[in-house]
Design brief:
alpha+beta, single chain, 12% strand
Length: 246
């Protein structure tokens, strides 16, 4: 008796489906792994691209900054050349100006010594100060020159002002205290405080002249100098100008 075994058709179909599903699962895993690699590669590429762009921007910024620095260096070199040229000019000017300033101070000293002897100590002290100033290394040439011009300006002002002050006539024990009045550089008058003597400076003979006839004019000049009276006509002896030999 023969037996025939039959396999159900659904059993064969299930196995095949399982195999198919397993293969699909493997494919999915492989595809997922590949996608992850792609994503990782893409992320790395993006990072590298971002870094490249940032590096490029930094490079361009550095190039602009370096170009700006080069412009500054060129400008500073030009400025340095200009300063060096100015220093050379200043040094030359200083050598040329110094003898001139010495001459100006020497001329001022000679002028004061030959001029009317008003405020003589004060004026000679100013000249001595200028002499000392010329030898000082801590004072600029421009400041020295300014002070010399200032001294000349003061001397010029004496020629158009009226001034009074207490002074002395004579030397040593013979000196007499008097009131002085200077009228520009036209006249230098004096009067004793007790009113017993008055006179003027004779610049030609380089001496004081006692002249009682001038007492009234001296008194008037003193009032004007002290701003105690209005300007008035004064009669004073005026010496003719003399030429100074250099």
């Amino acid at each position: 008796m023969a037996l025939m075994l039959t396999v159900p058709a659904y059993a064969v179909d299930t196995k095949a489906l399982d195999n198919l599903l397993a293969a699909q699962t493997q494919n999915d895993k492989a595809a997922k792994a590949a996608q992850e690699k792609i994503d990782q590669t893409d992320d790395g590429t993006q990072q590298m691209l971002t870094k490249y762009r940032r590096t490029l921007e930094d490079t361009q910024s550095n190039e602009k900054y370096n170009a700006h620095l080069m412009e500054q260096v060129v400008s500073q070199r030009k400025e340095l050349d200009s300063i060096q040229a100015q220093l050379a000019t200043i040094e030359t000017t200083s050598r040329d100006v110094f003898p001139l300033m010495e001459k100006m101070v020497s001329t001022l000293e000679q002028f004061v010594s030959l001029d009317m002897p008003f405020r003589k100590d004060e004026r000679m002290k100013r000249v001595a100060m200028l002499k000392g100033l010329l030898d000082r290394a801590d004072v600029t040439v421009s400041e020295k020159y300014r002070r010399i011009l200032e001294a000349y300006q003061i001397e010029m002002e004496y020629g158009r002002t009226i001034d009074n002050y207490d002074g002395k006539i004579g030397d040593g024990d013979d000196a007499v205290a008097v009131e002085m009045v200077r009228i520009g550089r036209v006249a230098l008058l004096y009067r004793r405080p007790d009113g017993k003597d008055a006179g003027y400076w004779n610049n030609t003979d380089k001496k004081w002249v006692s002249d009682p006839s001038t007492e009234r004019d001296v008194a008037t000049a003193l009032r004007v100098a002290k701003k105690q009276g209005a300007p008035d006509l004064l009669w004073v002896d005026v010496q003719a100008p003399t030429e100074v030999q250099q």
